[in-house]
Amino acid sequence: MESLDFLLDGLVNFVLYFSFSLVALLLFKVVYTKVTPYDEWALVKQQNGAAACALVGAVIGFSIALGSAAVSSISVLDFAVWAVIALVAQLIAYRVVHLFLPLISQRIQDNEWPAGVVLGGTSVAIGILNAASLSY
Question: How far is 125 from 10, CA to CA, in rounded Å?
Answer without folding.
Answer: 31
